[in-house]
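not sure who needs this but someone in the group chat was asking about TonB-dependent receptor from Phocaeicola sartorii so here u go. i didnt clean anything up, its just raw.
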Amino acid sequence: MRIFVCLLFMLGVFLAVSAQQVEISGRVADSKGQPVSYANITLQHSDSTFVTGCTSDEKGRFVINKLSVDNYLLQISFVGYITQVIRLDNVSGTLDIGTVPLADEAIMLQGVTVKASNVMKRVDRQIVLPTDKQVKSSNSGYELIGHMQLAGLKVNSIERKITTVSGGTVQLRINDIEASTAQVQALRPDEVLRVEYIDNPGVRYADAEVEAVINYVVRRAKSGVSGGVDFMNAVTTGFGDDNLYIRATHKLSQFGLNYYLSYRDYDDRKVDEEQMFDFPDADVRQRDLIGISTPFNYKDHSIEASYNITKPEKYIFNAVFTENIYDSPHGDYGQLIQETGKTDLYNYTRSEYNYNSPSLDLYYKKILPHDQFLALNAVGTYINSDYKREYSEAYTEAGKPVSFYNYGTDGSRYSLIGEGIYQKTFKEVTLTTGVKYMQAYTHNRYMGDVNESTEMHNSSLYGYVQAQGKWEKLNYSLGIGASRQTFDESEEGFTFYMFRPMLSLSYPVFRGANLRYNFTCSPSIPSLSALSDIRQQTTDLEVNRGNRHLDPYRSYTNRLQLSWGNKTMNFQLSGGHRYSKNPIMEQIDCVVQPDGSYIIEYSSANQKSFTQWNGRLYASVSVVPDLLSVSLYGGVNSFESKGNSYLHHYTAWYVGGDVSLNYKNFSLYGSIGNRYNSLYGESIDYGEKSSMIQCSYKWKNLNAGVGVLYPFTPAGWSAGWKLMNERVQKKSWTYIKDNANMVVLTLSWNFNYGHKHRTEDKLMNNVDRETGIAR
């Protein structure tokens, strides 16, 4: 009996101990008490064998549960901070270790080695920690993304461009502020803590029409003065991007000034074209248009003055005044027209476009108790634009025109955008809701062959709510947005209502692998210029016209993606399907003129449907760790364009890759890709071939380099399109030989004087670039 009682007692003790809910929690902060998000938390047994791990959340908090009573080692690390290791003996029950401060490294990001995968996957994004070598070898935000080789992106650091592989728009942000080209170029890579690659933008970005978002999370300049210069100019061609910036911080305030100049000046640009017109009252007309070298140039100036005042954990106020000035006096092209049975003609198209756009951006964020905040943003913009186009035909290159058409547009637009975002973080879910309103007035005066004036009032209201959380191992994001768009032109009004649902699911199928499914319903509305009923004759045979009867349409996208990665390699396999119902696509008609002759009229209309199937494989390998890495991608697209009177199919393959080499203070980056071709409506778009090589040497705060754009391509840059209408068939190619084997020199220098102080930035940025003019 005693033995039985003893065994029963021991069993009870064992069950009681086993039933204890062992949990370890805490908060990670820097030396100033600010939370450190996405810090790596690793729990080990006292013999250093791995138990489990996690990352801290946006507030720096972490929780590890479902543990047994034992002795543990808790390791907390993050790039730019000294790793902390805490010994926890005889852990039982719930243990809150409080706030764990991480001390800054003496030199940020120096001497840090990422021992595991530096990529953390979330339901809508990848959080990537730049390695020490990637930071050392980069001189700007563009070069850093290039060396990081993120799946699905194409980077051209010479031309200051980041796009998706398909050529889609990538929105760039710094500390969640939408950033300009100048700001990304001025970004110091050694200030970047992590990069958030949002390759599945949620409903918050739904009205921005972007395919991806890059958010650089940085440590901002602190008290003192910092600044720098960055120059990139071609040796023999008019091609350059130059930037100067300075920031000064005093106590809680920061002042900034930035100037950016981008210019192009080409002499050898030409357009070759083949045309076929089938008019009812005449034979088929076949024409060859042989391109003549003509000038193309522009200058794009951007001046930014900013002020920021931040009281940590209390509030942020940010004000930015921006002046953009764009001037393109020559977007010209000339051609020799050869047609069987007719005398040769020379045509010349002269195009001039310029605008200036001042804007004021005000932002305020209030940190509220209990893990919530409220952010408000207001942006006022004025755009003054001027566009002129002249088309002439003559029997000699410099002869008297036998036909001449011209029109111009003098436009003015005033807009006001307001937005509010509220976010609340609960234990298991983060809830975000927002509303955005825009009111604009546009006045355009058309001159030349068209002598009309149009006035348009338009407004938009967009509201959304999004929930992100985790259930067991399943990460989810569910968002719903709704918008109302109104247009009022010349006493005729349009009102569009749209609904925008979005769902994302992510599940870790096995160690290092993640399976993700995305669904989006994206409405699209007609542009202001497409709704404007302005008739513009472009040649003897052709005319452009708007369409007041356009309706919005919906696109439904499903995407499945499997990704796997570790310290040395990453793979990603994805496939998707997109279906658009009644999309706005080309409408080409042969119409009768008052004199009984026919002319081709180009317009837009709601057609039947558009379908796209796509698949892509991506692989990156660190061939020699911290020295040489290579990435490759390839994919296929299949398109079906179904119009009211046409049906077209097209399939296109694409392939590309890049290489990153870093050795001590030397770095080399190169990329190459074939054309990304696509079908929409009745046109096939032949994208550009891309290739570049850039190498540089870094010494302290000075970086000098040399690069080649389009190496080994004597023809230079080229892109084209093909029209497949039953009445009109065209094939056009544009060439810029000045870009062929173009050698560029780069030089940058930055300085930092005084102590440092972290500032916070705003979560949103609104801007208006819509001129509303028909071009």
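also Residues 18-101 form a domain with the Immunoglobulin-like fold (CATH 2.60.40.10). if thats useful
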